[in-house]
Design goal:
The chain is mainly alpha-helical and 272 residues long. The protein is built from 11 helices and no strands.
Length: 272
């Protein structure tokens, strides 16, 4: 392998590390990937890479919540078949996931290209990171009481709107949904679980919608190995970061992410 190929491989490994580490935590993976592209001198704005790394993160999240997913699906089907009240809360939880997915799905289909074209510059990301930091700071000490069974239609729709806002690069999807969930009075664990249950259908929807375009976007032979390495690294780092973030949520240390967003925003504004 030539030196230039090794350097390219290294850059894509770094890109996978950035995507994987920032996807679960409230600092905006899309914003950090754009920044990483800029710093590494890459022009990785293609649909193939985005779908590849998002799918890798999705697999890691599904693995972490695999028991919850199986329980929800099984109990939902049992409720539909039997109408047994003990399965109703899981059935409703899935309904609220669907409701919470609608705003981002609609806005994503209608405006995703516009958002990608107009709002991917470094100054915009610096501003949106600062906004994320403010929101994290505001809810840093909130301790809710709502559990899965206490979520309602209003909660689901508001959190769904927060996820839709996170289509803007620099606004963290996990941050927006966790912030909204906690602000609505959900317990930390419930907020985190609901946030990432919302991530699954959105990510799956993006994958399905992107398949046709993906078929028309051939990958250069020199990028096959870098893409594979990015995929593997993204899965591993998403898993590690998600487990770490779950601990952060249990301990209530969201303020540290606020500090990071403020610092990153200031540094980007200085350098841009």
């Amino acid at each position: 392998m030539e030196t230039s190929e090794l350097i390219l491989l290294f850059k894509y490994v770094v890109l996978g590390l950035v995507q994987g580490f920032t996807e679960p935590i409230p600092v905006s993976s899309s914003g950090h990937v754009i920044i990483a592209n800029h710093l590494l001198g890459l022009d990785e704005s293609g649909l193939t890479f985005a779908i590849l790394t998002n799918t890798a993160s999705l697999l890691a999240i599904c693995f972490i919540y695999r028991k919850d997913l199986v329980r929800l699906i099984v109990n939902c089907l049992l409720y539909v078949q039997t109408k047994n009240g003990k399965y109703k809360s899981d059935f409703l939880f899935i309904i609220y996931i669907i409701i919470g997915t609608i705003p981002a799905a609609v806005l994503g289909v209608l405006f995703n290209e516009v958002i990608s074209d107009l709002l991917t510059n470094i100054k915009t990301i610096a501003f949106t990171l600062f906004v994320t930091g403010i929101a994290l700071w505001v809810i840093r000490n909130f301790r809710g009481v709502k559990q899965d069974k206490d979520i309602g239609v209003k909660d689901a729709f508001i959190v769904g709107l927060a996820q839709a806002i996170a289509l803007v690069p620099g606004i963290s999807r996990s941050g927006a949904t966790v912030i909204a969930s906690v602000a609505l009075g959900m317990k930390q664990e419930t907020a985190l679980r609901y946030s990432f249950m919302l991530y699954i259908p959105i990510s799956l929807g993006g994958l399905v919608l992107g398949i046709s375009d993906l078929m028309n976007e051939p990958v250069e032979s020199t990028l096959v190995l870098p893409y594979i390495m990015s995929f593997i690294v993204t899965i591993i780092m998403t898993y590690i970061a998600m487990k770490w973030f779950m601990g952060i949520m249990r301990d209530g240390n969201l303020k540290y992410f606020a500090y990071y967003c403020f610092a990153a925003s200031i540094i980007l504004l200085i350098l841009s």
